[in-house]
Specification:
The protein has 532 residues and is mostly beta strands. It has 2 helices and 39 strands.
């Protein structure tokens, strides 16, 4: 037998166990390091930054928000954050000084490009719009969609089999509104469109997803004569033709939204409201038309409905995320009181509710930070969540909005990275979660370029407000909103500013980028050239 491992088998076992324990410990440490959570607020210099959508990006998370841009218009704000630290890695605005671009519910990655659902407004003209960005957040194209020059508005989108399905509404002759569904290919070419005119007052606030059998499920809020606003859910084929239609819910006047997601392998969860009144047993407060989860079968027939307003709080869901396990993650806001404050100070908190694949609630949490509470007659604490993204490591990322600072007002994007059961700190319970929302400054290498004057039409001075010292091979690049380069100049090494002549630029908005020798973005800012 002669081998030492056979003479002392217990030593082999102990050695193997030590190696196993060490390996387990290392795996545990790596997992703990990777599975970080955070809660951060971002301020890009605007008083009205509302982040409503998010998707995965090779560098982390890509978030879209609206923002105020030069000229007092609304423009699109897009930024990427690290999934572990929450630090900003890149950001950009898209828009100009004459038109509003309002990002809506829809941001989908396909083949290293990102499709952003938006609404365009230029004067009295309002149209559904699709923006397409590359991984560096540069604009590839913008496309508008309407019928017969009517006003249209985008709301949400869904991508399936290299097709983009965009849902919004259109203003028909006679000033009544109808659901408007547009299908395009990945190049932005419209393949077909449908207007659903049975009812005369589409309120928006809808959703579109894939059915279990590869067709489409569409839901919108519409006014039914003598019944008020209802949730209308339709199953469509991939050409937009109606297979079946059902009506659910109670009067949903106000800002109430409707959402839908597949549930398990043969059901759907429809989030809407019902005609009912709840009384809070603690305060006596009343909630009318409470939030309700409708469970439907494959044919749209009702299997069950469950009121999900605990204690009579008013809650609303802005998004439903179809979870990887067949369940649903619903997110939005909840209006409730704050401990120690008079009942008139009802606050809106960010809300997440997790359903299993049968429609049962697994957990239900709402989040707020007392440091962002503003008590005065005009502004109180306000926050709400957009969609949730399931990370590959099981964590849950959620984006929304939160009050701006006391001295600024307005709102800012708020991003939370939670663990797999929706906790910022391990072992949290249901209900109220008091958290700290850290303000995340832009990293020094991404401070905006300082442009004076701005707007400008003759000469501009471009300064770089950062401790980073630019070398002689750095470049300043100016592009129009289509991404076409209109000016390129070498940055003078060792200088903090550069004087540029721009008399050849026509009126509009331009993007000024500072890049190092590798083309790495150092800073970015917008330049407005007024009409001459």
């Amino acid at each position: 037998m002669g081998g030492r491992d056979f003479l002392y088998p217990h030593l082999l076992i102990v050695s193997t166990m030590k190696r196993f324990n060490l390996l387990f410990f290392l795996i545990l440490v790596v997992t703990m390091v990777r599975a970080q959570t955070f809660s951060k607020v971002y301020d890009f210099g605007s008083s009205a930054e509302r982040a409503w959508y998010m998707c995965a990006h090779p560098d982390g998370l890509l978030i879209q928000s609206n923002s105020n841009c030069p000229g007092g218009v609304v423009c699109g704000l897009y930024f990427v954050v690290s999934p572990d630290s929450g630090n900003v890695l890149n950001w950009v605005h898209h828009g100009n000084d004459t038109m509003n671009i309002q990002p809506e519910r829809g941001l989908e990655p396909v083949n290293d490009v990102y499709y952003s659902m938006s609404t365009f407004q230029n004067g009295s003209q309002i149209n559904m719009m699709q923006l397409v960005l590359d991984e560096e957040l540069d604009l590839i194209r913008m496309s508008q969609f309407t019928e017969n020059e009517l006003q249209s508005r985008g709301y949400c989108q869904y991508m399936m089999n290299d097709k983009v399905y965009m849902l919004g509404w259109i203003v028909n002759p006679g000033a009544y509104t109808s659901p408007y569904l547009v299908c395009t290919d990945l190049e932005g070419n419209k393949l077909w469109s449908k207007i659903y005119t049975e009812y005369k007052q589409c309120r928006g606030g809808g959703d579109i997803i894939s059915s279990h059998d590869g067709q489409l499920i569409m839901v919108e809020r519409n006014a039914i004569p003598l019944q008020g606003d209802k949730a209308i859910i339709r199953k469509l084929d991939t050409l937009g033709n109606v297979i079946w239609k059902k009506i659910y819910g109670g009067d949903m006047s106000g800002d109430r939204l409707v959402n839908v997601c597949p549930l398990g392998s043969d059901k759907y969860l429809l989030q809407a409201h019902i005609d009912s009144v709840l009384v809070n047993p603690n305060t006596g407060g009343v909630t009318s038309r409470p939030a309700t989860a409708f469970i439907l079968d494959e044919d749209g027939e009702l299997l069950s409905d469950t009121i999900i307003n605990d204690y009579g709080e008013l809650r609303y869901y802005t998004n439903t995320t179809c979870a990887k396990d067949g369940g649903v993650i619903a997110s939005g806001g909840i209006v409730t009181g704050v401990s120690g404050l008079p009942s008139k100070y009802a606050q809106s908190f960010g809300l997440i509710t997790r359903f299993d694949s049968l429609g049962n609630i697994l957990w239900d949490r709402f989040f707020w930070d007392p440091d962002y509470l503003r008590i005065n007659p005009d502004t109180i604490f306000s926050s709400a969540f957009g969609p949730v993204v399931e990370m590959d490591d099981g964590r849950l990322a959620v984006v929304g909005l939160i009050n701006g600072p006391q001295d600024k007002g307005g709102t800012n994007p708020w991003v939370l990275m939670l663990d797999s059961v929706g906790c910022l700190t391990p072992g949290c319970g249901d209900g109220e979660q008091i958290v700290t929302a850290l303000r995340e400054p832009l990293p020094p290498s991404m401070y905006p370029v300082l442009i004076t004057p701005n707007p400008a039409s003759g000469e501009v001075t471009i300064g770089f407000d950062s401790p980073v010292l630019l070398d002689a091979v750095a470049s300043v690049v100016i592009t129009d909103l289509s991404g076409r380069q209109v000016l390129h100049n070498v940055w003078p090494g060792g200088h903090s500013s550069l004087l540029l002549g721009i008399p050849h630029l026509s009126s509009g908005m331009y993007v000024v980028r500072l890049e190092d020798a590798r083309g790495q973005l150092l800073a970015v800012q917008k330049l407005v050239v007024p009409a001459r």
